[in-house]
Design a protein that fits this description.
By secondary structure, this protein is α/β, with parallel strands linked by helices. Helix content is about 35%, strand content about 25%. The strands form two sheets. Strands 1, 2, 3, 4, 5, 6, 7 and 16 form an eight-stranded mixed sheet that branches. Strands 10-9-8-11-12-15-13-14 form an eight-stranded parallel sheet. Helix 2 crosses helix 11 and helix 3 crosses helix 4. The two termini are about 15 Å apart.
Length: about 350
């Protein structure tokens, strides 16, 4: 006797413009989503393996990264399952197109069948920005005020972080921008003005790193900010691009992570510090532990936040977007996506 067949879920596609339109009204909510996901991860209710890097020997700057993940309840049920497949080709910017492109695949927790494919680059950028602003908020004592806010790097990630700062109600007295490409720096500065920020300047690197809060959002592959006296005590550094800072700079600071086990890989600045000093004494803790009050802030050294960026964040945001896209009729259903729906 054959069991009653479980229905195969209807497959959907969520294009980038749909995701963009839905995310436009969710900037503030994405910060809460990221915070809740980090707390879920701290409770051990996620599965987040190491990212897999597909690299090319003759094109070392290019890579495509697979981030499989799952968010599971304590009772064993899975709330979200999927994988992000994101490419990073830095030379894309020379042609005026974004460096990164991505897709996010969500799977049905009951059958394993794919539920949907979503354009993932914007989801990735928005969840990265939400993580950055969440870290900034907690390292700044949950205050949304800072004297000068600076950006080193004026690309897509920096733009999204700036937009999320604006949506979260931050009010810096001024914004500084530095980029090796003058056109990118000017575009970023103009975007800051459009978002209502005051006293916006394009500045050299030495001035950018002197701001009260510094955001690194570059495509640097090796450290260029060197030494142990670059940042002053109490200065907040959002190390979003992960590879701009020297081991000495890391070791001279308090260091917070989204998950330090994930971040101490792939020659990130903290990973280089671990390899150089052969210890993890520079680790202060994960952001979720700070949120839960398990660690406290001190201000006698610089405060650095290094989020590696975990697949669980893409899942949490992608699941919400898929639900919204289906509810509003903006997801594209493909009834014939699966070629076979019966074993016999």
């Amino acid at each position: 006797m054959m069991n009653v067949q479980t229905a195969i879920p209807l497959f959907h596609v969520v294009p980038g413009m749909v995701a963009k339109n839905l995310l436009a009204d969710l900037r503030g909510q994405t910060i809460d989503i990221v915070e809740n996901t980090y707390l879920t991860h701290l409770r051990g209710e996620t599965i987040n393996p190491d990212s897999y890097f597909l690299q090319f020997p003759h094109e070392p700057a290019n890579r495509i990264i697979a981030l499989p993940a799952a968010i599971a309840s304590r009772k064993g049920g899975q709330d979200a399952v999927g994988i992000k497949w994101i490419a990073s080709y830095p030379d894309n910017i020379k042609s005026g197109i974004p460096r990164a492109s991505a897709v996010l695949i969500l799977n049905d927790p009951k059958t394993g069948y794919p539920l949907a494919v979503l354009e993932g680059a914007l989801i990735s950028a928005v969840r990265t920005a939400a993580s950055a602003v969440l870290g900034a908020r907690w390292l700044n004592g949950q205050r949304r005020e800072v004297s000068r806010l600076s950006f080193v790097g004026g690309g897509v990630i920096a733009r999204n972080i700036l937009e999320t700062f604006a949506a979260d109600g931050w009010q810096p007295s001024g914004v500084d921008v530095h980029d090796l490409n003058p056109a990118s720096a000017e575009a970023m500065a103009a975007f800051a003005c459009q978002n209502g920020f005051q006293d916006v300047r394009v500045v050299p690197l030495r001035e950018a790193v002197a701001a009260d809060m510094v955001v690194f959002a570059t495509n640097a592959s090796t450290p260029y900010v060197t030494g142990n006296g670059v940042f002053r005590p109490g200065q907040i550094v959002l190390n979003i691009s992960l590879r701009d800072l020297s081991p000495e700079t890391i070791a001279a600071s308090y260091n917070f992570f989204d998950d330090f086990e994930h971040c101490l890989k792939a020659n990130t600045s903290p990973h280089l510090a671990e390899k150089k000093y052969q210890n993890r004494d520079f680790i202060t803790g994960n952001l979720a532990s700070l949120i839960r009050g398990e660690i406290s802030l001190s201000h006698d050294k610089p405060l650095i936040y290094s989020p590696f960026g975990m697949g669980i964040l893409d899942l949490a945001l992608g699941k919400l977007l898929l639900s919204m896209a289906i509810e509003t009729g903006q997801a594209i259903a493909i009834p014939t996506f699966f070629g076979e729906t019966h074993r016999w």
